[in-house]
């Protein structure tokens, strides 16, 4: 029972720490001598928080993330790499040809580049400073229909805007080659416990505003299969998690139909 109560309070803990980093971001912004910046306060705030939280989060999910990313091959579209905490788990060449990391938060780019260098991916990883919804920029970067072997989304689809979400995902689907794989690890709405689902609804009141648009209870596992035709849909709950988890995850892969 104690373990369950601690789990129920985990989002409150994250909101508290996010608030602390908000004050830190404000302090840094006030001390900055620059009168112009290419990032918003909200972006700088989340970048500080995520630099702190991403490494232990990746460590906690190490088994699932490492097994997932070991399947990457060819040309890879890495959606929302953040500060790059998962990059050490990517395969090296020749398994991969090139990785394009879509990261619109420029406050994360310096740390992301350090992670790229440390992972030995400097020659094959390109940071693209925009989001998945910017189709024209994707095309200009050479990511066209049927040009991608693997799409990676690890704890990121929760942060895409609700309006037009399925259209954005459909656009990413078109980038996949027939037979291409979409590798997924995302936290989702708890559909097994009414108490956890209700608590998610309460936390959702505060969650998006403080965590860069993240939705704690998004039905990603229901939305993704609808955006295209798949030969394989292996999305399943993470087995190690209890049915009452306040932030349960689904993981696995979707393989695009060849016809």
Automatic annotation (TrEMBL):
Domain of life: Eukaryota
GO terms, biological process: methylation
GO MF, any single term: methyltransferase activity
Start and end residues of each Methyltransferase domain: 76-180
One Pfam family matching this protein: Methyltransf_25
Coiled-coil annotated spans: none
Keywords, comma-separated and alphabetical: Methyltransferase, Transferase
PANTHER family membership: METHYLTRANSFERASE LIKE 7A (PTHR45036:SF1), METHYLTRANSFERASE LIKE 7B (PTHR45036)
Protein name: S-adenosyl-L-methionine-dependent methyltransferase
Species assigned in the record: Choiromyces venosus 120613-1
